[in-house]
Amino acid sequence: MNNILQLKGRFEQRSNSSRPGSPKLPKGKSVSSLHLIELSEQLKRILQYWKTNTDISGALVSVHYTHIVAKSNRLKILLSENSKSPAESIRGAKFIWEPDEDGKEIQKHVFTHYVSLKAIEKAIEVLSETISVIEQYFNGIITNEETEKIAETPADRLSEFPKSNFLNTVVDGFYVECFDIDRATEEITEESIITIYQTGIETKKLLSKFGIHIVDERIIDGTTLRLNPDEAKLLYNRASYLIAMSVTDFSQLTRDEVLEDKAEISNEESLITHPTNEPVIGVIDTQFNEKVYFHEWVEYRNLLDPNIPLTAKDYEHGTEVSYIIVDGPRGNPALDDGCGRFRVRHFGVATHRGFSSFTVLKMIRNIVASNRDIKVWNLSLGSKLEIKPNFISPEAAELDHIQSEYDVIFVVAGTNIPDGETKKDMKIGSPADSLNSLVVNAVDFRGKPASYTRVGPVLSFFHKPDISYYGGDGSGYKDKMVVCRDDMGAAYVSGTSFAAPWISRKLAYLIYIMGLSREVAKALLIDAAAGWNRKDDVSHSIGYGVVPKHISDIMKSSNDEIRFILTGASEEYETYTYNLPVPIVDNAHPFYARATLVYFPQCDRNQGVDYTSTEMDIHFGRVVVENRKVKIKPIDNNQQSEDKFITLYEEDARKMYRKWDNIKHISEEIKERRIPRKAYDFGLWGLKINTKERLQRRKEPLQFGVVVTLKEMNGVNRINDFIKMCMARGWLVNQLDIENQLDVYAKAEEDIVFEQ
User: Are residues 244 and 193 in contact, defined by beta-carbon separation less than 8 angstroms?
Assistant: First the structure.
């Protein structure tokens, strides 16, 4: 087996030198003055409404597009204010599904803007001038060819109308289907967490206009609030246009299967040594039973109000989860992962009956902020309710913010199908829609999706769950997971709650013991689960695959594989290296290749389906010089961001290259016919990451981790050749040897006693 190699070297940074050309219509397309007249009339009606309704001192306008649109094809001039781009006024985004001319359901973007009345008046004026030009000079319809001619003419003005304004309005009109004022229509019968659109008015002051008076403790992030049923109904009745999203506040835990206590685990403390300097994993769950044999390994804090009565049931779930993290291999030797034992800092935030999502939201941030030494957190709590199709749950959004802010990672259980539920393909429950978290579903001991499995995707696009692991399934004891939950012995259980802590163990081992960043650790687990010849999991039930049981199967590769990791930070548009030497045999590279990229972007729940703020586009492959320019021939033929012009629609970019996803996994397929790839020039390979922002330029560099695997086509071990070639080209090469890293960790954690 070969060790993983850690390559340390320099990444070059380069800003985006390309500039957008003149706006023009797609080839073969046109815009009629009648369509622009219709858009103008819609804006006039919207303007009249907001002149009468002055509660928000401005206007909310929803822009319905004809399909999913790229950032470059969204409004350029309509609804703009002064020198600001219309993108700056976006307050929410969602998808809708509507039939096209052939009756086929297609997905469309809807963006909600908050603008001044003057911005609407200006848009109406610009539309009027554009309509006049189209009717006067183009007989009521303008084509792609005509916009190209206008773009190429040196004249600055068309009639008395600036050329750029005219073309931008035409293109805006092509992509926009209609303008409207969208309203929420849900029935509210329970206490809810509601997010309103950001306007120019402070939330408490705005709500008071509708007879709703709340205190600061019921508000998160300025616009997300907890309302009782009467308050929610009042808001829906009087200002439904304000509501961006809403969910039920009280979450009931999803079920975990439990059989009668049959397993035998002695409660004698002699079964386990005293803890010393083992790594600490944070657990946020129900309560912990301090009578169990491993209680010394768990630092427990009950964060519930002391007046809340607790029963024995309230201690079971949390204790079972912490048991797996501390000593799971004892009761489940078939799942021995070689990771040893871990200490746990356990925070009891719920009872078995359920919990207030809003209260837990506030708790989690305080818990993480007060325990900065913990890098890995296990969260096996989940809602019975399905996630919403158009926005991230408040719980998941808070986890994503915390992970972006505090350099930690959450392992989240993918939730189980509740008792009595008959719906097929039930969507996962919050907070398993957290994009930065590592979300884990369960499989049975044969590696098949468990019967209680719920599915993704999230926001109709993002792969969730990320990975799967063994959670037990079936009616017999041999099909269950063994856990310790009290001083009376153990139980046989199954559920995603018990798959997640096994992944927390592996993740903690990679971060604490092996010294890897969270980006690389997450990428390694996903890469190991995916392996070779992975086909898309169309059911979204197991994510990228099932993670191997033993840590050595993650930390080592077969003798015919070279696996190496790279870390860096994106500071400019392009981060790249063209300096990766891949061994050459007979003027060719006899390797299959795959790569996994992971990063933790900032996320904005108020942007709805456009949730992730940063896109990293990975190009990995052979380096070639064409027309005196150095380029990469990507293993997945990725044509995004290339110099040559190509037409790539947003839907295709998302489907083919996972655009805007914070995980990118690209892989060549291993085939029976082995054809080595031609070696260009010096036989170098390259890695390039292009970084784009949705709204504004990032102030801080964004870290990323990449795991690359090269598989020799003829089974030859060429790792030593690769190491020598890397060192010759200036790379620092470190072999990640498990035994060495264990020694390093032990030495680093030793207490030093100074002589007096």
Answer: no
Helix ranges (H only) for 512-629 are: 518-530, 552-555
Q: State both tokens at 28.
A: 């073969």
- 3-state secondary structure (DSSP) of residue 517: coil
Q: Is 187 exposed, middle or buried (0-12, 13-18, 19+ CB in 10 A)?
A: exposed
pLDDT, tens digit, 9 for 90 and up, residues 476-530: 888 999 999 888 778 899 999 999 999 999 999 999 999 999 999 999 999 999 9
Helix (H) or strand (E) holding 148: helix 144-152
Burial class of residue 360 (count of CB atoms within 10 Å of its CB; 0-12, 13-18, 19+): buried
Nearest to 254 by CA among 421, 427, 434, 383: 383
Predicted confidence band at 98 (pLDDT cuts at 50, 70, 90)? confident
**Interatomic CA distance for residues 688 and 505, integer angstroms:** 32
For the chain, give the number of residues. Answer: 756
pLDDT of residue 54: 92
Alpha helices in 387-495 (DSSP H): 394-406
Best CA proximity match to 503, nearest among 548, 472, 458: 548
SS (H, E, C) 17-66: CCCCCCCCCCCCCEEEHHHHHHHHHHHHHHHHHHHHCCCCCCEEEEEEEC
**How far is 322 from 88, CA to CA, in rounded Å?**
45
Q: Judge whether 552 and 742 are in contact, CB under 8 Å.
A: no
Map tokens 């299959």 to a residue: 592
DSSP 52-102: H--TTSSEEEEEEESS---GGGS-SSTT-BTTB-GGGGEEEEEEEEEE-TT
Phi, psi at 259, each rounded to 5°: -95, 170
Letter for the amino acid at 354? G
Interval 579-597 mean pLDDT: 95
Can you say whether the dihedral through the CA atoms of 175, 179, 183, 185 is positive or negative? negative
Annotate 267-296 with b (16+ C-beta within 10 A) or e (fewer): eeeeebeebeebbbbbbbbbbbbeebbbbe
Tokens of 634: 């990507």
* Sole residue written with tokens 């470059």: 72
Lowest-pLDDT range of 204-208, 257-261, 465-469, 506-510: 257-261
H or E element in which residue 177 lies: strand 176-180
pTM here is 0.88
Tokens for 394, please give them.
């408040």
Q: What is the pLDDT of residues 42-77, one digit of tens each?
A: 999 999 999 999 999 899 999 999 988 888 888 999
- For every residue of 654-667, DSSP letters joined together read HHHH-TT-SEEEEE
Instruction: Measure the CA–CA gap between 405 and 395, rounded to whole angstroms.
Output: 15
DSSP string, 191-227: -EEEEE---SS-HHHHHHTTT----GGGEETTTEEEE
80-94, 185-199, 654-668, 737-751: lowest mean pLDDT where?
Answer: 737-751
